[in-house]
Each structure stands twice: as C-alpha cells, then as structure tokens.
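Final report, closing paragraph on structural work. Over the funding period we assembled a curated collection of sequence-structure pairs, and we close with a single example.
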Amino acid sequence: MAIIAILIACKIHLNGPHMTLRRLSLVTLLLLLLPSMLPAAEQTVQLLDGAFVKLFFFEPQDELLAGDNPPPLAIFIAGGSNNEFMAKAQFWLGKEFVDRGWAIAVPISPDGKGFSTGDSSTLPQIIKQLHATHALQDSKPLLVGMSSGGSEAIAIASLDPSAFRGVVATPGRIKPDASLVDLDGLPFYIRIGEKDDFRWNRMLEPMSQKLLAAGAQVDAAIVEDARHVFQLDWENLEAWLGKLK
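Its predicted structure, as stored:
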C-alpha cells in the first residue's frame, strides 16, 4: 500500500493526471531500485546575494575511509526538476558512492531550474562552503547525475571544466542547445541502456565524438539489455575512478 501511495504521488507530482505509462514505469523502477536511505543531513547554504540553497549531505562511515584521510567529494545532480522529491527518489545511485567512501552533496534547485542556467557562481559557492564546513579531501569534486541529472552534470562541467575532476552520467546526453568549449581533458564516464526508453542510446556515438572534439576524455558505452534506469558495473566504474587525478 505504501508503494502504491508513493506511485500516486509521483504521478501527480511529475506530470499531473496526464503522466504517461512510460514515465510511471520509470518511477516504479526507481522506487524498486531504491535501497534503504541514509539519514539525510540537511544543510542550508547562503549565497553571496543572500539567497539560500538547500542540500543533503552524506558522509561514508569511518571504516570506509583510508586511515585518517577525509573522503573525496561528489556532487549528485538530481533529474527532473531537480527538487527534493526527485533527489530522494534517485539517491540510490548516490548511496552506492557513499558506500564506497565518497561524500555526496545533493543540492536542491530553489526554482526548479538546472544549475547550468542562471548564476554560474551558485554551484562553486556551494562547493566552497562544503569544504569550509566538512572534512573533505582537498581536491576537485566529481559530478554525478542520472537521466536528466546526468545531462545537467554534463552541461555544468562544460561551463567550467577546470572546476571538476570528472563527470559520471548514467545515463546522460548533451543538451540540444549546448555549445562545448575547450574541455581541457576533462574525463567523462557515460553509460546508456541498450533499450533506453527515450532512445538516448542512438545519441551515444555522435555525443562521444562531440565531446572528444572539444578535448574531453571519454569512456562511453552501451549497457546491454538495460533500459533508462539500471544498476552500474561498479568494477568497471571504480577502475575509471581510480585513474582520476
């Protein structure tokens, strides 16, 4: 009964009474893949213009850390309207990073717009405050996103590639109106399902070529027999993460 109630809420929230069966099936899959949530550490960040941005922050257990070394930081970009509801529904992916020793911050868009639009200083300000208030590895953060959150992660990194250590988009795509600047060797890890519900799999090759032409390092592949939402091959992803500076 609880799952049915959540699905009804998802239907109303995502597209009112006209939500398609495809979208409802995706939400169902998200909920079924969702493991037990970590206790959400809510935090509010005040920006230089006085505005506030809410975020969730999760840290790995001490036994997952290497000695006294603090964890590296990853920024998880939620899909949809980048709001609290979608952040919680999709955080099963973020939890997998936390379980492997990463600290994860999930910023919530105050106006439903992506962080690649509007004031370009918002996310850098959030990252700076996270380093000031938490014990984190002194390194650039990783960008992680799923579905439209993966697309937003690609867009954010394209605006300032020197600010990030890499991008994990599973799946993600280049936005149609995006103009890529010099990506200066920024690593991208992109995975799209072979049976993607939105046919993003057809975009993978031209998208990879566009990123390569802009100077990115690209590790892109189709996930066999997978749809739009899928579990990651962590053995493969961890090998890629291990190569990042």
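Helices lie at 2-15, 21-33, 84-89, 92-98, 122-133, 148-159, 204-213, 234-241. The chain has eight helices and eight strands. We thank the funder for supporting this effort.
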